[in-house]
Design goal:
417 residues
């Protein structure tokens, strides 16, 4: 996207078109409401243990709680409830089947998620197919299904999904148009969806250097759903990039968990403090998460190992990313795999992986930078310069300091002027 285009779109959104129009419906009790609903269905099941439909409803409520709190243990409860539901009601039980599809996606078993969701076939289930196909790198399939879904059911959810497929393919103008249409189509009953769409749009702007618009969108998401974890994480990343470390720590602490601990360790490194203990705490939590429930934190652990910069960790980072890439081939996964291979000195393999990532068409300053560094290490100066020019076109603010604050280089790597 050109700079005039970026300024045009930014100007439009700064005219408050992203403001939530249902101020009276802004929820401050989402988690409390979920807890009440869970308690209600638990009581119904105690009174009528043979009811499979109540078990299916409870399973999906547990999944909502897992997403709201980022506590993976809720997925274990959801899986148990869904399996019990299917045992009691093995046929025409779409609620339990969809719950298992959502759990499979959370576990990064995307093939199973697609298979189960396709068997349900509802708009919600097809949305899950789209997100799983995006994770698998099946962009054409995801785009075709997202377009069909948005044409048939033009809603906040379907238009957001189509925006994400456009973004993954580098169709920025189409992505922005769909994000705008999605917010215009929102309804007061779906506060979580309204907040999520704004976070996705804010992330889009942040990745292109428009921090002001991104921050406004994240702030609006937190007005709609206070303590929304995804908004806090993006706020923390943005504050880190801007050097506002105290603000970043506030947002990471509001979320908690392994990803937040990684962010806090990065802040300690950036502040020049002794960060060894912080890295260890984050690493321990990530390893515990992988060992206890296999809910797909391999990529996160590999990122931490690469960013920490200990040469002894490189072989494990490569193994983690090669394992992850066997069933998850989105551009972000391929980017981290390429970084691991680059650090391991496997430059030709890293080059091939980055080419696959960028063949999607995605516009990412971080990925273009990685591709340029790999080409430079291979002695291909002309190709490297071409990628570095793309970096500046995508995000003019993507300088060495920004790269380090985003965790895209080793934290012990000396910054160049």
């Amino acid at each position: 996207m050109t700079q005039p285009d970026r300024q045009y779109w930014s100007g439009l959104w700064h005219q408050s078109l992203y403001n939530y129009p249902f101020s009276g419906s802004v929820s401050s009790q989402n988690q409390h409401t979920l807890e009440q609903s869970i308690s209600f269905y638990q009581g119904r099941i105690q009174q009528n243990p043979a009811d499979g439909l109540d078990q299916a409803a409870l399973a999906n409520l547990y999944i909502q709680m897992a997403r709201a709190t980022r506590n993976d243990s809720w997925y274990l409860l959801a899986e148990k409830a869904a399996q019990q539901s299917l045992a009691k009601m093995p046929f025409e039980n779409s609620g339990a089947t969809l719950a298992l599809a959502k759990i499979a996606e959370a576990q990064h078993d995307f093939e199973t998620a697609v298979s189960l969701a396709e068997s349900v076939g509802s708009p919600d289930a097809l949305g899950l197919v789209i997100t799983s196909q995006l994770a698998l790198g099946q962009l054409d399939d995801a785009a075709n299904l997202a377009n069909a879904l948005a044409e048939q059911y033009p809603s906040l959810g379907s238009l957001t999904l189509r925006a994400l497929t456009h973004e993954a393919q580098g169709r920025d103008e189409l992505a922005l148009a769909d994000f705008k249409a999605a917010i215009a189509a929102e309804e007061p009953a779906n506060t979580a969806g309204s907040a999520q769409t704004r976070v996705f749009l804010g992330r889009f702007y942040a990745q292109r250097g428009d921090d002001k618009t991104a921050q406004a969108l994240y702030h609006e998401a937190l007005q709609i759903v206070p303590d929304y974890p995804l908004a806090h994480l993006q706020m923390a990343e943005l504050a880190t990039v801007e050097g506002h470390y105290r603000t970043a720590k506030h947002h990471y602490r509001a979320v908690g968990g392994a990803i937040a601990l990684h962010g806090l360790a990065r802040i300690e490194a950036l502040r020049g403090r002794s960060e060894t203990a912080a890295w260890t705490v984050a690493e321990t939590e990530l390893r515990r998460s992988i060992d206890s429930n296999a809910l797909g934190h391999r990529r996160d652990l590999a990122h931490l190992l690469l960013e920490r910069g200990d040469p002894a960790d490189i072989a494990e980072a490569v193994t983690l990313m090669e394992t992850e890439a066997t069933n998850r081939r989105d551009a972000k996964t391929l980017h981290l795999l390429a970084w691991a291979l680059q650090e391991a000195g496997q430059l030709s393999a890293a080059q091939q992986v980055m080419r696959e990532a960028l063949d999607s068409g995605i516009h990412s300053a971080g990925m273009a930078y990685r591709a340029g560094e790999i080409e430079l290490a291979l002695g291909h100066s002309a190709q490297a310069e071409q990628f570095f020019r793309q970096v500046a076109e995508i995000n003019p603010a993507f300088n060495p300091q920004t790269r380090q604050r985003l965790g895209l280089v080793r934290q012990n790597e000396r910054l160049l002027p």
